[in-house]
Amino acid sequence: MKFVSSNQDWVAEPCDALVVALDDNWARTAEYQAIDRATSGWFQRVMQSTEVPTKPNKVTMLIAPPGIPAGILAIVGTGSAQATACNTFFRAAGSAMRALASKQRSVIRFVGFGNSPLETRAAIAGAMVGAQGQDLYKSEKTTFAPGTVEWLGAKEAQIRAGEIIGESVNLARHMINQPPNKLYPETFTQRANEVANDAGFSIEVWGKERLEQERCGALLAVAAGSVREPRLLILRYRGSTPDSEPLALVGKGVTFDSGGYSLKPTDGMLTMKCDMAGAATVLAIFNAIAKLKVRRNVIGVVGLVENLVSGDAFKLGDVLTARSGKTIEIHNTDAEGRLVLADCLNVALQENPSHIIDFATLTGACVVALGNDVAGLMSNQTQLQVDVQSFTEKCGEYTWPLPMHSFYSEQITGKVADIKNVGEGRWGGAITAAKFLEEFVQARPWVHLDIAGPAFLDSPKPWCDAGGTGFLVRSFAEWLLA
Ligand code: BES
Ligand code: MN
Ligand code: ZN
Questions:
Q1: Which of helix, strand or coil describes residue 477?
Q2: Most informative mutation of 308, 334, 370, 448 for ligand 1 (most atoms within 8 A of CB)
Q3: Confidence class of residue 280 from pLDDT cuts 50, 70 and 90?
Q4: Structural class in CATH, domain 2-154
Q5: Is residue 429 within 6 Å of ligand 1 at its C-beta?
Q6: What is the set of active-site residues?
Q7: What pLDDT, in 10s, does the model give residues 378-414?
Q8: What does pTM read for this prediction?
Q9: How far apart are CA 213 and CA 198, in angstroms?
Q10: Cα–Cα distance between 318 and 333 in angstroms, integer?
């Protein structure tokens, strides 16, 4: 699939499908007027007769429209256009593309998507998301990306940037959708090396021995139950002078979370291949920023492990020593993400970052609190928290703060060791998990994003197949580009 800029003669040029975005105020738009003129008033009759064609993400396919050389004229609604524009265009473009991707097509032309470069890039990324499904191992594919996508109203540079961001979102989605027998610490690392070579950033790989030398006792304990050896990756992108402090991105990469001895029931375990979404998010953001050549130094740390049960697995009551030297009492082996992140955050600190942002499918409690469309946002610094919340909102990916009062920390005080890996009971579980992480950031400005809800869809949306979503890749690529 290749994106090119559409020429001004877009109504008169042939294509397989012409996709037009129209809001409730459609009659005033240049796109509507051009199509109505070319079809000699037919389009107006359609718009007035078809049942609310401008409802958000509704796709109306009109076969063989008269007077224009398009096989299909597809209308996609953007509603009142009052929601965040980036979100509106991302979803509308995704919905139209997903509907058209049911068959192989060669040229699809998009008109009327986005009024600013930020919106245009969101819409292009949306179209790319719509063209990629989770049918990775189906003998007969169900999703077909078109050969060429022509885009009206964007310069080549914007199109290229949108394509890089869309490719990065799809990279994260693809990795999350890989089954856990195919994607595990070693194969994640192979993929990361390919991405690094292609995009232009470096990766340092720590295997089991190095992790032992580095005393990453928390991460290693989680990994102990699996025959698949763990990895810790340090990603480095240099876009600024060596003296400029890097931003650190940290990701939870549990390639499968069975819960360990605190075993999950089947229903909860079924989708736990998604538990490496944080790590995939970090890798995908690196792909984007290296290809976009952003002018920042960024480092990434991802911890890759499988949380399984065996004679070597860690147990309830075990006491671990994290890389920082803190001792941790294990009260639940299913609270493993925070253990992996404890050591990753400590490695990130060593790179002297200006601030740290971590991405993790950390708690079911966060999904209970905020649902599936909003990530939990927890921080030790108000300004950074406000900046992240407002920027993600502007990009159309929603994050929402949860409180971080110091008294929550009382819940994770240990009896035998410094801290324990769960709070007292289930209440406030997303926050006690964040408080645990805070123990490992040494008061460095830090934001924790709990993406357990939005990282993975159990059932499809009109704009995105079920499975991994690549949530927050777009916002952070844009944040570093801005
Ligand atoms: N990976 C899970 C969290 C999760 C749940 C991600 C649902 C995606 C969807 C995490 O490791 C976990 O199991 N957390 C426990 C913590 C508890 C034992 C304190 C949870 O949320 O139940
Ligand atoms: Mn778990
Ligand atoms: Zn987990």
A1: helix
A2: 334
A3: very high
A4: alpha beta
A5: yes
A6: 264, 338
A7: 999 999 999 999 999 999 999 999 999 999 999 999 9
A8: 0.98
A9: 30
A10: 10
